[in-house]
Amino acid sequence: MGRIWLFGDNVTTDAIIPGRRNITTDEKELARYAFEHARPSFSREVRDGDLIVAGNNFGCGSSREHAALAIKASGVNHIVAKSFALIFYRNCINSGLYPLKSAEDMKLRDGDTARVDLKNFEFIGPTGASYKLIPLPPFLLDIISEGGLIRYLNRHKTFRISGR
Amino acid sequence: MEGDFAIIDLDLVMSHDTTTPLAVEAFNRFDDKERKLFDVEKIKIFFDHVYPSSYPSASELHRLVYEFSKKHGIELYRGEGVCHTLMIERYIKSGMIVAGGDSHTPVYGVAGALAFGMGSTDVAACWKSGKTWIEIPESILIDVEGELPRGVYPKDVALSYVKELTSKGGLNRALEFRGGALKALDKYERMPIGVMATEVSAQTQIFWDEKEGLVADEGAEYSDEYKLDVGELEPLVACPHEVDNVRNIREVEGTEIDQVFIGSCTNGTYKDLEIVNRVLKGNKVERDTRTIIIPATRSIYQQALQRGFINNFLEAGAMVCYPGCGPCLGRQQGALASGEKCLSTSNRNYRGRMGSPDAEIYLASPATAAATAVNGRITDPRGYL
Predict the structure, then answer these.
(1) What was the ipTM of the complex prediction?
(2) Are B238 and B245 in contact (CB under 8 A)?
């Protein structure tokens, strides 16, 4: 179980980590500035296993992979959103962070606790209510579950596409 | 078909000084014997986002990339200008397929290339394999007809479709631009329209061009079709803090502005500077309005020097800086203080993008920016042209 950090639509990668912080590749340093203006309490209060839940177009804007790394290094492993901007979505998969699309409206409050069941692609809310998630395509699930793109390519040498 | 995954072969792979350091670190995690580039001639790296650096930590990353490029023999551009404008000046050809470690990479569609933006780990995989995966997008057709009125420019066309589609309206789709209004525009003039496709969250964009033999398939299907008649268009301004918060200039005219920035991949070309020159020549910028002008590339800078533009800008009281991304992304010159208002020709006005989260950013055309610099307030450029 983890705390839900609730966000709205069109959260930009600038909001996840401002441009002036991207002068390092040190993940822990990046995590210190995660959501520094959008949610000033985030980096102080976030705990391992917390979840981000958001609206449409999460991670839009700049291609900076620092955004996915800052979230991952904060201890968050799952982001559940109505939709994701594509580059951020790919950056999550490549970094081993699960970007999950919700299949139905979820009634949640910021600060609630929840968990994700990846076997059944379900989001389990604070009262035990479960919501359907859209299953990740097998091709992308392979990349993410094998620890990201570099490990995947070290193992398979090439992309192995299997359906949608 | 839409929604299917496809593997594509790449003609070029681009990255810059924000995205390349993480790409180098990712590449170095490939197994020893796998650490080879698919084709060094097809890989280009640019230092433009934070170069020359004002931070020792960024300088360390520049050195990391420099040493990597030198070891592998990769062409590295340092301080010669904004990656996208240089790519279009030197490398992009109609029909190419390109990947780039930058969200505005799809702009290469202005020159007939199909281009995709990505993050650093994807770039590392492209360096090694010369391939990447895409999810085949649905397309949106944008038909741009009519003749641009005096004082109205491609940036206004761009803001007009951003307003229409909204920030998430093109989510992961491809935009296809065609129509009579675009025929008169060269690839540099098209850049603001191409760049701003990213601001409606499109995956890519392309300009159809019959002269180049670039036309859509017969019977191509679109998820949406828009028709823009630009004949009646007026200067537009994207207001804080969302790019799709677009207003007619009359609604914001008179807003006091602390900083004007003219440049970036969106509006830093020679023709942009030519328009700025028409406004600034013989005029003075308002003394309380910091005015920063950055030619997008070295060759644009040189042309502007030869034509006397740079001297006119300096005489007007503007600052002219070396080619690069400048204040656009808040890492170089011109960081905004709290409460300050900036009018910029760049592409994003997100809260905190150019400095303090309590600053405000307005986006507009170079003509509007230059007129605003002269007046110190948001100003309709049509009185100055």
Answers:
(1) 0.96
(2) yes
